[in-house]
Specification:
- This protein has 939 residues and is of the alpha/beta class.
- It folds into five domains: 133 residues, no CATH class; 138 residues, 3-Layer(aba) Sandwich (Rossmann fold); 200 residues, 2-Layer Sandwich (Heat Shock Protein 90), CATH 3.30.565; 125 residues, Response regulator (Rossmann fold); 92 residues, Homeodomain-like (Arc Repressor Mutant, subunit A).
- Helix content is 56%, strand content 14%.
- The protein contains 31 helices and 24 strands.
- Strands 2-1-3-4-5-11 form a six-stranded parallel β-sheet, with helices on both faces. A five-stranded mixed β-sheet has the order 14-16-17-19-18.
- α8 packs across α10, α14 packs across α19 and α16 packs antiparallel against α18.
- The radius of gyration is 74 Å and the shape is elongated.
- Bound molecules: beta-D-fructofuranose (FRU).
- The site of beta-D-fructofuranose (FRU) has 15 residues, from α3.
């Protein structure tokens, strides 16, 4: 019941949620309710149970036991009936109180077989009034308050007994009658029927009436006490077989059992009951008295189930005697056997019922569990689905967020790259501005610092200033163009013009330069005239830029060809050279504005080409490059013919080429800018104070430095780090001035190499660069640079730094030499290593007669020149002088610390004779070796 209540509670909750659920959930709920209904139906088909109370006067004799068994057997066919049984043990009082107790135990019906008739009237009427149906069984009471009476016809049985005895005694004889309990109805009725029948036999006389009270022991007692009288009778008739056999027993005990015959009532089957006694001859006859047990139960069920019953159910009887006892016994045995079978069957049925009940319960339990599992499963599925949906939504949101994050990251990465590129670009722009600015400021300062200036000198400086001012202008012009392009403000203003004349005009500007550099500059065109729609100003810049680039990278004696031809509905302009060409990487990034490859950004190239591409694209044309390292480069421009691709706005007025170029910068000025020969060396009236190696890739700066410093120093100039290094090794200069930013090996790498090599480690390096950042200075210092000068530099300052560095070097050389000779340490590890090695080799070689500079330089892995220069630079003395110093040092030591002879010391220190040793020693120490040995101190 509890399970059903829980199910109902869940169902209620589900039904209230039903409206808000989807189809799937609703189907699930209907299924659940269906299953629940099934369980409900199973519960409601259960039959009602009843309690039958049975009160019996006694349970002690066979007849009563048979009655109870009959009832029980019948009850097996009615499993919903329970029997509550009470045995009063022949006590009327007890039976009355038992009836009351049965009523209290909530019986639905009372079956009573009362001990006596009158004393039960009251209690039975009370029960009946309470609405409890009453069935009287076997014995009657004095009331009409009962529903049914079931029992044998006792008057008739008494009469049958009278008939039998009348016949048996042939109408004459003496009879003893033994009564049952006289206050019980069977005893009274049996007596009445018997006596009425005997009236038909006047010669049959009832000589004695005894009260046996239905009990064996009572009979035995009363018979024994009156045996003398009784033994004269012919027949004893008792109201039941129990009492007849009890009397027989007393007679038998006294050995007179054959003196009279015995007749009883009941004729029960069974080994010690009436039917067996007739078979044995103990009783002459008996009369079947049915128990009515089955009928009583049957009647009770009908009453309780509301069916009609017969109120007086009189059961029939038959006479049992020697003539029919066998057949009856056989029948009865068979019946007993059948009853036993029935009992067995009913036990089996009971067991099966139990099994069925248990299986049914298990089934219900399983079904309920299944339903609960289904419910929980479906609920879990529902929750899982809901969770999945929520999870999916979250996933989608996550994906969106991740996508947005990736986009933001990509954008910020782009922005970061763009910022970095822009910073790099500005850094290089500054660098590019610094060079022409240096070349304007430096000659201007020079001119201003002089009291008198020659015309030549003035012209040369002004020319340099002008050229660099133009260069600045050009750079600014390019930057303005770039700014416009960047802001999308570049507009095409095309007019239809003859492209042949236009290009010829440009070529003309480069003619003089081509001649000077012996470059084969040609304009090759297949048609005499080619009208094309283009923007003069922009195309002019593009072609001038391409040709100027070709000049930059093409060596003397090379070729630059500009080829023009019509190809379909396009024109093709090619600028070809056989110059140094580009690496594949350089080529791939040729048009990139902020290309940051391995090479430093080249503004004149990168900016110009990036702009060229923008300008050609404005024309809806194409520009591309083919190039191979050391073979040459070809730029190809394709422009569409006609003007259908142009908007009305783009088709502007016809404008003259040069007048239209704002800010004004002619190709000639550009050509002048590119022309190295324009810079004339200025004469400086100063003496030369050392050899300087200048490593600078910018031609103008290199030329300027060569010119400006050439008066004071011997200048060797190189344009790359690699050639600079070669010259440094070859010549061992006194100082190196190098730009940091160089193609290939840069200034920092060059410095590192110089400082790491034994042969060059002593050479001071001054780094010259446009970059002023502290990081660059730190890098320079790490590489071993001695000074760092930022462009644009002041020439006077530069000269001062050069002088100071060289003077310091000299001081240091002197200190270094004396320090080294006195065995104290030096600051430069490479130089110390070099001197250690050199000194060791000299000390070892001294004794050998072949020892000299030649062998020493070979052993050191240097050329004679390198050795001389290195020793000179480090110790400010000749190698030969240094060898002499070592000899003297060793000689001094041997003189002061040993007892070796002069001759021995002379040979050990490499002198061919003691006399030469003495002369040499005195020359250098102002003492003879003997004098020195006597007083070494002070020397
Ligand atoms: C059993 C019995 C039977 C008899 C019946 C009469 O108690 O004495 O022998 O027939 O009761 O009520």
């Amino acid at each position: 019941m509890n399970a059903i209540r829980t199910c109902l509670a869940i169902t209620n909750r589900l039904v209230s949620d039903l409206a808000s659920w989807g189809r799937r959930e609703r189907s699930f709920i209907l299924l659940w309710i269906g299953c629940l209904a099934l369980v409900g139906c199973q519960s409601t088909t259960e039959t009602r149970t009843y309690r039958i109370g049975f009160s019996q006067c006694t349970g002690g004799d066979e007849w009563r036991k048979t009655l109870l068994n009959d009832m029980k057997r019948e009850l097996t066919f009615h499993p919903n009936y329970t029997l509550l049984y009470e045995d009063a043990g022949n006590s009327t009082t007890k039976q009355i109180s038992q009836i009351q107790s049965l009523v209290d135990r909530d019986i639905d019906l009372l079956i009573i077989s009362p001990n006596e008739a009158a004393p039960f009237t009251k209690v039975v009427e009370a029960v009946f009034r309470q609405g409890i149906p009453v069935i009287l069984l076997d014995r009657k009471i004095e009331t009409e308050s009962y529903n049914a009476y079931i029992g044998g016809d006792n008057v008739e049985i008494g009469r049958l007994a009278g008939v039998f005895i009348g016949n048996y005694l042939k109408g004459k004889g003496r009879v003893v009658e033994v009564w049952g309990l006289p206050s019980s109805s069977p005893a009274q009725e049996r007596h009445r029927g018997f006596r009425e029948e005997l009236k038909k036999y006047p010669n049959i006389q009832v000589v004695k009436e005894l009260n046996g009270q239905w009990e064996r022991d009572t009979v035995r007692r009363v018979v024994a006490s009156d045996l003398n009288t009784l033994k004269n009778a012919d027949l004893l008739f008792a109201h039941n077989d129990v009492m007849a056999l009890g009397a027989y027993g007393v007679f038998k005990q006294n050995g007179i059992q054959d003196q009279l015959d015995f007749v009883g009532i009941d004729a029960l089957p069974g080994p010690s009951a009436g039917m067996q006694a007739i078979t044995d001859g103990t009783l002459k006859a008996s009369f079947l008295y049915p128990t009515g047990g089955e009928e009583a139960v049957e009647t009770a069920t009908r009453i309780l189930e509301g069916k009609s019953v017969k109120r007086e159910q009189i059961l029939s009887s038959i006479q049992v005697d020697g003539s029919n006892v066998r057949a009856l016994k056989a029948q009865s045995d068979k019946l007993i056997k059948q009853q036993l079978d029935i009992e067995k069957q009913s036990q089996r049925i009971e067991k099966l019922t139990e099994t069925y009940t248990s299986q049914k319960n298990t089934l219900y339990l399983t079904l309920t569990s299944l339903l609960v599992a289904m419910f929980l499963g479906s609920w879990a599925l529902y929750l899982y689905r809901s969770k999945q949906t929520a999870y999916q939504t979250l996933e989608n949101q996550n994906d969106e967020i991740r996508e947005q994050k990736d986009k933001i990251e990509a954008v910020s990465q782009q922005a970061r790259v763009a910022t970095e590129e822009k910073l790099r670009f500005y850094s290089y722009i500054s660098h590019e501005f610094n060079t022409p600015l240096s070349l304007i400021l430096t000659p201007a300062e020079d001119l201003l610092s002089k009291k008198s200036v020659s015309t030549n000198e003035l012209k040369s400086n002004l020319s340099l200033i002008q050229k660099n001012a133009y260069r600045l202008l050009r750079l600014i012009d390019q930057m303005l163009d770039l700014r416009k392009t960047d802001a999308g403000k570049q507009r095409l203003r095309a007019t239809e013009q003859d492209l042949v004349v236009f290009i010829q005009d440009i070529i003309q500007d480069f003619k003089r330069k081509a001649e000077k550099q012996r470059i084969d500059l040609q304009f090759i065109h297949s048609v005499p005239a080619l009208p094309v729609w283009f923007d003069r100003e922009k195309l002019d810049k593009v072609i001038v830029n391409l040709i100027a680039n070709a000049f930059k990278y093409t060596p003397k004696g090379g070729l630059i060809h500009v080829v023009l031809e019509g190809v379909g509905n396009q024109v093709r302009i090619q600028v070809q050279d056989n110059g140094e060409g580009m690496t594949p990487e350089e080529k791939d990034h040729a048009f990139d504005l902020f290309y940051s490859g391995t090479k430093p950004f080249n503004l004149s190239k990168g900016l110009g080409l990036a702009l060229s591409m923008e300008f050609i694209q404005l024309h809806q044309g194409e520009i591309e490059v083919q190039s191979e390292k050391d073979k040459g480069t070809t730029f190809t421009i394709l422009l569409p013919m006609g003007n259908t691709h142009l908007t009305a706005e783009e088709m502007g007025e016809q404008m003259a080429r040069k007048a239209d170029m704002q800010p004004t910068l002619s190709a000639q000025q550009l050509v002048a800018d590119l022309d190295e020969d324009e810079v004339t060396a200025v004469e400086w009236p100063l003496k030369r104070a050392g050899t300087l190696l200048v490593v600078e890739d910018n031609d103008d700066i290199r030329t300027f430095l060569t010119t400006r410093l050439g008066n004071e120093y011997e200048i060797i100039a190189e344009s790359t780090g690699e050639t600079g290094w070669e010259r440094a090794l070859e010549l061992i200069p006194d100082l190196i001035i190098s730009d940091v930013m160089l193609p290939g090996m840069d200034g920092l790498q060059l410095t590192q190499r110089v400082k790491a090599d034994l042969r060059t480690s002593h050479i001071p390096v001054i780094l010259l660069t446009a970059k002023g950042q502290i990081e660059q200075r730190i890098e320079g210092t790490r590489a071993g640079a001695d000074a760092y000068i930022t462009k644009p530099f002041n020439t006077t300052y530069l000269l001062e730094v050069l002088r100071t560095t060289l003077a310091n070097r000299e001081k240091w050389q002197r200190r270094y030499a004396s320090d080294f000779l006195s065995q104290s340490g030096t600051e430069n590890r490479q130089d110390k290593k070099f001197l250690n090695e050199l000194t060791g080799l000299i000390e070892q070689g001294l004794i050998s007669p072949n020892f000299g500079v030649e062998k020493l330089s070979r052993d050191m892995g240097l050329s004679r020149v390198q050795l001389y220069r290195k020793v000179q630079a480090l110790l400010d003395m000749n190698v030969i002088d240094y060898i002499a110093e070592i000899r003297l040092k060793k000689a001094r030591r041997l003189l002061a610390e040993s007892t070796k002879t002069m001759a021995e010391i002379a040979y050990e220190t490499g002198f061919s004779s003691p006399a030469y040793f003495t002369t040499f020693f005195k020359q250098h120490t102002q003492k003879t070796p003997s004098e020195y040995r006597k007083s070494p101190a002070g020397v």
